[in-house]
Design a protein that fits this description.
The complex is a heterodimer of chains A (217) and B (316). The radius of gyration of chain A is 19 Å and the shape is globular. Chain A is built from ten helices and no strands. Chain A has one domain (4-194). Chain A has 217 residues and is mostly helical. Chain A has helices at residues 4-35, 42-71, 78-101, 106-115, 117-134, 138-144, 146-152, 154-169, 175-189, 193-196. With 316 residues, chain B is an alpha+beta fold. Chain B has one domain (2-307): Oxidoreductase, molybdopterin-binding domain (Sulfite Oxidase, Chain A, domain 2), CATH 3.90.420.10. Chain B is built from eleven helices and twelve strands. Chain B has helices at 17-21, 23-29, 41-48, 50-58, 71-76, 89-97, 119-123, 152-159, 197-200, 253-257, 300-303, and strands at residues 104-109, 115-118, 129-136, 141-151, 167-172, 192-196, 206-211, 214-215, 225-227, 240-246, 281-284, 291-292. In chain B, β1 (104-109) and β2 form a beta hairpin. In chain B, α3 (41-48) packs antiparallel against α4. The chains are: A mainly alpha (217), B alpha+beta (316).
Chain lengths: 217, 316
């Protein structure tokens, strides 16, 4: 545990730092777009980058709870919703670019989603993220209670589908998708009762705003 | 599936084969030695007048939407797994590691005159021609590339194929020090490719030595690479060290890696999808919107007869 002063500072810096971190990939891409850094096929590059960032942020979202448990530092939980919503944001960008890439041709897009499993899986993951994003407000958490926890366990499925989506689309070099798969499995393993330690969380040291969020998911 | 002849091209408009077979004589007689630097089908057709030019455009020559891709894009956006699987890695690594000179190319197998040639000696007997071709990658992007090179069939003829020869097998250099990507097992090294002998003898098949009148850069397959514009880009084997004639269909790199996804023929075909993605459209590098992919990449009039009666869905 850091000293009380450092702890207070960290608490305050946590969210702004996360905002900056989450917006960096976008800023970087915009910068590259204006400086020719996106290469010969900018649409393909931006599609890849937004998808990659969405998947990375999904993993980061899943890392919050194990990290909090391991460090015992509860303020981390504030990051979970923020990271999850940014994952959704990048997934939406990813999908919007895909739609534009298909020239918004509805017939072609429907066929692509139905016929090509990697598209089906990616599209499903995005659809499943929508209810999670919509019910991420404090109000929904309170209103849905235990059902909220159940609903938001769907993030596990979304992350798994995201990894499969990546794995199925690469031509040959599956190194990166497999790395995501490994990270996902580790994050899931850390949730097993054996590795997660005691079932009940220690109560937060002070009843902060973050304690309003429901049980770990 | 039977080959669909392009309905919009009446047979009367198809460029006669002799135009290709005798293109050198044609150029010489016409006293067009200077123009010979640009012996594309379009240039030939232009010499013959308007009607032929129109026909040439329809049967594979460049259309008005086929602007040559900028040199920078052609030389920085590459698939050459011997130097890494990222598109930008070959441009970064190949010039650092690959030494395209001295370079020896062995021609052997079922030929009357086998031999090992220094690159310069291999090319010297032939006139280097310019051919601007469309290039369609199996990943659904495409370019227009002004190649220089020598027709593969000229090289094969000089080696005197024996009667039993039915296929040509081409092999890339195997040297993990010059090609660091070969230290990974992403493909079965060395990269090999193959053509049926009649495909290899087709006038469009080119052994490229340059792009935009500059020597081929390492990332593009220096010093010698295959160009078969009616096939997907992966057939265009790079940095060739061996050309072998055989009586059996050679094993090819991508077919070995994923036989259900990459066939031996790999003819560009918008009607036969890759198992995982559509091949109906492509993005020309530099364009925002995708365009329809043409059967045989727009070279159907020249090459479709090679595959008459074949089921192109099975022989993908």
């Amino acid at each position: 545990m850091p000293s009380a002063k450092a702890d207070a500072l960290l608490r305050r810096a946590l969210k702004p730092a996360a905002w900056v971190g989450c917006l960096l990939p976008l800023a970087w891409t915009v910068f590259d777009a204006f400086t020719g850094g996106l290469g010969a096929d900018p649409i393909r590059e931006v599609t890849h980058r937004t998808g990659f960032t969405a998947l990375t942020l999904l993993m980061a979202t899943l890392a919050v709870t194990p990290l909090r448990r391991m460090t015992g530092w509860n303020p981390l939980v504030q990051l979970r919703r923020l990271l999850g919503l940014f994952a959704f944001f990048y997934a939406c960008l990813h999908f919007a670019i895909y739609l534009a890439d298909q020239g918004f041709d509805a017939g072609f897009i429907v066929e692509d989603v139905v016929k090509h499993p990697y598209v089906t899986v990616g599209f499903t993951a995005l659809l499943l993220l929508i209810p999670l994003a919509v019910t991420s407000t404090r109000k929904s958490i309170r209103r849905l209670g235990k059902r909220w926890v159940k609903l938001h366990r769907m993030i596990y499925l979304v992350a798994a589908l995201g990894v499969v989506h990546f794995y199925w689309l690469v031509k040959r070099d599956v190194t990166q998708p497999l790395e995501f798969g490994a990270v996902f499995l580790v994050l899931m393993a850390l949730r097993l009762p054996l590795l997660a330690g005691s079932k009940k969380m220690r109560p937060a040291r002070s009843p902060s705003r973050s304690s309003a969020s429901p049980q770990e998911t | 599936m039977l080959i669909r002849p392009p309905s919009d091209v009446p047979s009367s408009q198809i460029t006669p084969e002799r135009l290709y077979f005798n293109r050198r004589d044609f150029v010489r007689t016409a006293g067009m030695a200077a123009a010979a630097a640009l012996v594309t089908p379009a240039a030939l057709a232009a010499c013959e007048g308007g009607a032929a030019a129109r026909a040439a455009r329809q049967d594979g020559a460049l259309g008005k939407d086929d602007e040559p891709t900028p040199y920078k894009d052609i030389t920085t956006y590459n698939n050459f797994y011997e130097f890494g699987t990222g598109k930008d890695e070959p441009a970064e690594n190949a010039p650092r590691y690959l030494h395209p000179r001295p370079w020896t190319v062995t021609i052997d197998g079922l030929v009357g005159k086998p031999g090992a040639y220094h690159f310069d000696d291999l090319v010297k007997p032939f006139r280097v021609e310019s051919r601007t071709y469309r290039h369609r990658c199996v990943e659904t992007w495409s370019m227009v590339i002004p190649w220089q090179g020598i027709p593969l069939r000229d090289v094969l003829r000089r080696a005197e194929p024996r009667p039993g020869a039915r296929f040509v097998e081409l092999t890339t250099l195997l040297d993990p020090r010059q090609m660091p990507g070969q230290q990974s097992s992403v493909l079965d090294w060395p990269y090999t490719e193959g053509l049926r002998l009649d495909e290899a003898m087709h006038p469009l098949a080119l052994l490229a030595t340059g792009i935009y009148n500059r020597p081929l850069l390492p990332q593009n397959g220096a010093p010698l690479r295959l160009v078969t514009p009616w096939k997907y880009g992966f057939k265009g084997i790079k940095s060739i060290v061996r050309i072998r004639l055989t009586d059996r269909q050679p094993a090819t790199a991508w077919n070995k890696a994923a036989p259900n996804e990459y066939g031996f023929y790999a003819n560009v075909n918008p009607d036969v999808d890759h198992p995982r993605w559509s091949q109906a459209r492509e993005r020309r590098i530099g364009d925002w919107l995708r365009r329809p992919t043409l059967p045989f990449n727009g070279y159907a009039a020249q090459v479709a007869s090679l595959y008459a009666g074949m089921d192109l869905r099975r022989n993908f």
